[in-house]
Every structure is written in structure tokens, then in C-alpha cells.
Amino acid sequence: MGFGEAGFGTRYLESVARRGRFCAGIDPHAGLLTDWGLAVDADGLSRFADICIEALGPVAAVIKPQVAFFEPFGAAGFAVLERVIAGCREQGALVLADAKRGDIGSTMAAYGTAWLDDSSPLCSDAVTISPYLGFESLRPAIDAARAGDRGVFVLARTSNPEGGRVQTALVPDGRIVAQSVVDAAAAENASGAGAVGLVVGATRSHGLDLGALNGPILSPGLGAQGATAADIPEVFAGADVRWVLPASSRGVLAAGPDVAALRAACASARDEVEAALTPLS
Ligand SMILES: O=C(O)c1cc(=O)[nH]c(=O)n1[C@@H]1O[C@H](COP(=O)(O)O)[C@@H](O)[C@H]1O
């Protein structure tokens, strides 16, 4: 199978085999709180979270709370985030904390503890991290992930239009920066556990060679950023599509606050992705 018997890669593949390849984002934008008839305060955030846990927790393979939208509420926001993480995990989803951490190695060790260690109330199944202080600076977070069969998702080629300037710049050996990140992640996964995933946006073709990655590929950009499930096969031509995990936040959340409607929107987005990828699997 190309992956180890234990490790995050195995947990990930089991989850998408059960629930389908789709990551539902929990991004409580102020505008969404208002659209859902909720106050833009910690109580509104808390109600938003409850609805998301109930609607998405039982259906999505992976749920990705965007930490940025909890932070403006301070300690109360973090308390809600802790509940989102625990609640979604209790319902059988893998939780990917979208914190996009990136710092010097000694600080990355603290981030690894915060997001990936059982001792932390924010402990998730995986966390997004940025390699732009140097891939090797991520080592302590990668070690923390491996120690608990958890994962990291390293930004390679992001969905936003501004990313290209740095991510497609050339490194001295002639590869683009994003490919150097892909290759470094693939080398980490050579041990088989699939602990090091990538983030590669669904919004454009990227020319990356992802064939040796042997780990999950989060692909945001469906819905609000304009990508569709039908774009995914072309964007990931040549990749092992077992690992491709398209993601959407606002595109699904727009169906709330009704729990049944929100759950149906998530299931339908998942079904569209599966219909597009299954012929390639
Ligand atoms: O790491 C991410 O999840 C991410 C990477 C990327 O390249 N692009 C991207 O949009 N994201 C996140 O994915 C979510 C996209 O939200 P929607 O555009 O509402 O689907 C946001 O939380 C972004 O921060």
C-alpha cells in the first residue's frame, strides 16, 4: 500500500475510505454569524460552533476549524475552539487545526505541543504549518506529529493569487520553491507513516510533481474561491488521488444555520468530489 501500518497516513486513509474525500472548513466569519442570525460575540461564536459540530461532525472525513476566526474573541474564542476540536473528534471526524504556524525551531516545538500533544486542550489530529522560515525549522512539529500518530500539512502552493511570486521562484538547483517543499515532505514520508501532508490549492494547475509524496494533500479553494470539483482531476493529474483532500468553508457554511441543510451541503460537496475522483482512483 505504500504507507505504514500505523501513523497519520493510515488514520487519514481510513477516514476518507469511510466518509469520502472532503474537508469541511469551520470559518466563523463575522458576516456568516450575522447571516445565521447570531451576534458577533463569543455567544454567537459558540452557537455557530454547536451547529457546525452537530451538522458536520458525523459526515466529514476531516474538519478544519480556521483558528483566525476564533482568536478575535480571546480566551472565550479559544474555549469555543477547544469545544469544536473535541466535539468533532468525538463524532469521528479528524480535526485539522488551521493555524498556519511557522517560526524558528525552538518556537515550533511549542506549537507542536500546543496543537499536537495530548497534554494540550487544543490537541488536534493535525495542524497546518508554513515552511517559509525554512523546511528544517519545522522539524520539532514534525517530530511531535509522528510521536502521536498525528499530522502536519505544510503549505506548498497556496490557493491565493499572491502566493505565486514566492512559491514559484527558483531555488538554486532549478526547482521552484513549492516543488522543493513537496520533495522535502516526500522525503519525510519515505518512512511510510504519512505524517507530513501538503497544502496545494485547487484554484489553478501548478505543475508540481506530487507522485512520490505518499501523504495527504489538502486542497482548499472549492466554492467561494471559484474552484469546482470538476477542476480537481486536472489540478492533480499525476498525483495519487487517494491522498487528495479538497476543502471548502464558505461554500458549505452558506447552507446554515439549519443543521440538516448544512449537513446536506457538506454531503453534496463530498459526493461531487468523489464523483470527480473515483474514476481516477
Ligand atoms: O491552509 C489552508 O487551509 C488554506 C490554504 C490555502 O492555500 N488557501 C486557503 O484558502 N486556505 C484556508 O482554507 C479556507 C478557505 O475558505 P473558503 O474560501 O471559505 O472555502 C480558509 O480558512 C483559508 O485560510
UniProtKB/TrEMBL annotation:
Q: Spell out the molecular function terms from Gene Ontology.
A: orotidine-5'-phosphate decarboxylase activity
Q: Which reaction does it catalyse?
A: orotidine 5'-phosphate + H(+) = UMP + CO2
Q: Which InterPro entries match?
A: Aldolase_TIM, OMPdecase_AS, OMPdecase_type-2, OMPdeCOase_dom, RibuloseP-bd_barrel
Pathway(s) per entry: Pyrimidine metabolism; UMP biosynthesis via de novo pathway; UMP from orotate: step 2/2
The question of whether Lyase is a record keyword is answered with yes
Q: Mind telling me which residue stretches traverse the membrane in this protein? A: none
Keyword set, alphabetical order: Decarboxylase, Lyase, Pyrimidine biosynthesis
UniProt-annotated catalytic positions: 100 (proton donor)
Location of the Orotidine 5'-phosphate decarboxylase domain? 21-265
EC nos: 4.1.1.23
Q: Does the keyword Thylakoid apply?
A: no
Q: Which family does it belong to?
A: Belongs to the OMP decarboxylase family. Type 2 subfamily.
> Could you tell me which HAMAP family the record lists for this protein?
OMPdecase_type2
Which NCBIfam families does the protein's record reference? Answer: pyrF_sub2
Q: Which PANTHER family match?
A: OROTIDINE 5'-PHOSPHATE DECARBOXYLASE
Q: What is this protein called?
A: Orotidine 5'-phosphate decarboxylase
Q: Where does this protein come from, organism-wise?
A: Gordonia pseudamarae
What gene is behind this protein?
A: pyrF
